[in-house]
Design brief:
2 copies of one chain form a homodimer.
Chain A lengths: L1 H15 L6 H8 L3 H7 L3 H5 L3 H13 L6 H17 L2 H13 L1 H26 L5 H25 L6 H16 L16 E6 L16 E7 L4 H12 L3
Antiparallel strand pairs in A: 1-2
């Protein structure tokens, strides 16, 4: 019934426009009474986004069961639940994206849904980071970053007409957030793994260099070492990363 | 006239509640005709936030005149324009914050204003980063981070009843975003300063270490070097940072 109503509503929104479709039109098309509509949807807007409540519930459940060791990874994976909901029905998702861009009321509705996802992710991070110090600040900034990255990838796919696999763009975007924040979110608990004495990683070419490409001038290495690490260990690790002997 | 209408509206919202105040009530209190209201405000919601349009215009103007060398700094400073608007009238800002939390329509209105700020900041970053590669992605994620950090500091101050200087919390929050993103936003233009061959910086103690304190076990150094940098230069720089000979 819920599905039938959502489909009837969406067809009418596409045919007549969102504003000119009434709840009476929708129930007439679905062949049910007016009360049935409001039993399933608080408003016309809700019928356009019939899966967000389920998705929010799934996200909350997923996060409650998540491992404590990697909160940024957990909220990134939680965001992917939303992506999969969109990806499950590309045609509907793309049509709805176009409709939403045209109807201000749907855009503000969508903003409030996105805000609820963001608050759900921030709540999880806050519980893991603790309320002391900058825990709440970091939680909110990381949640906003994850949502922005996810939505960037999702929108690329929606604008392309829902062609191909949306996971690629979203994974790429979330990996960027992970790279920036992943190292900073390790909780100060005894369960955290010990940091290696030295770690050296080849990094992407710096944008400031005119050059680029593999092995070119622009390539850099980044090394992180504990103070007091013997110099020979530092040199050893750098040499093996740089390939210089 | 605009100011008189906004004040009359806000007084009535506090006295009777937002929903139960009509535009007729507002114009009666202000002693003007109904049309005057709509000449200044498209809706009742707009009268609650009379300064955001001016603030958005000021932000756009500020960014258009901003130096190209430090886009993350520019959008952080642009966000502070919003803070100053709130800080200019603490009592009104705190009352409005409380009202907004209670009225769903005002909350969604506020979300759409925040989104417009975010898009303004993202647009500036996109224009500086370029549309190639991850420019748009980075622009959106950094804009979302700046907005989340700014709002975290602003909300702390609003929740405290508008006591003290809100700049302290906002500066602290924006500095965190700056630290994370500042190094990654250098535009690939010839005006950017050349990267040093090697740079070594002592970093804060890692949270994973049980120790801590100056010179203790937990301290680390971070080194960034271009590939091809002679090893002696690397060792020289690390030794001078680590203090080991």
């Amino acid at each position: 019934m819920r599905e039938v109503l959502a489909q009837a509503a969406f067809q009418l929104f596409l045919e007549r426009g969102f504003e000119r479709t009434t709840v009476d039109d929708i129930v007439a098309r679905a062949g049910v009474g007016r009360r049935s509509f409001f039993r399933y949807f608080p408003s016309k807007e809700d019928a356009v986004f019939p899966d967000h409540e389920r998705c929010l519930a799934e996200m909350t459940e997923f996060l409650a069961a998540a491992d404590d060791g990697d909160p940024v990874g957990a909220v990134s994976d939680a965001a992917r639940i939303v992506l999969r909901m969109y990806a499950a029905n590309p045609e509907f998702s793309v049509q709805r994206y176009r409709l939403t861009r045209e109807v201000p009321g749907l855009r503000t509705y969508e903003l409030s849904v996105v805000r609820r996802y963001e608050q759900t992710l921030a709540g999880h991070l806050r519980s893991r980071f603790g309320a002391d110090g900058d825990g709440a600040l970091r939680a909110e900034v990381i949640a906003a970053s994850v949502v922005a990255a996810h939505n960037n990838g999702l929108r690329l796919w929606l604008r392309s007409g829902g062609e191909g696999d949306p996971e690629v763009a979203v994974d790429h975007a979330l990996a960027m957030v992970r790279e920036v924040w992943g190292r900073r979110d390790v909780p100060a608990t005894p369960t955290a793994p010990a940091a290696p004495e030295v770690s050296v990683v080849p990094a992407a070419p710096l944008a400031v260099s005119g050059g680029g490409g593999g092995g070119g001038d622009g390539e850099v290495v980044v090394m992180v070492a504990r103070k007091g690490t013997p110099m020979w260990r530092v040199v050893q690790q750098i040499e093996s990363a740089v390939g210089e002997n």
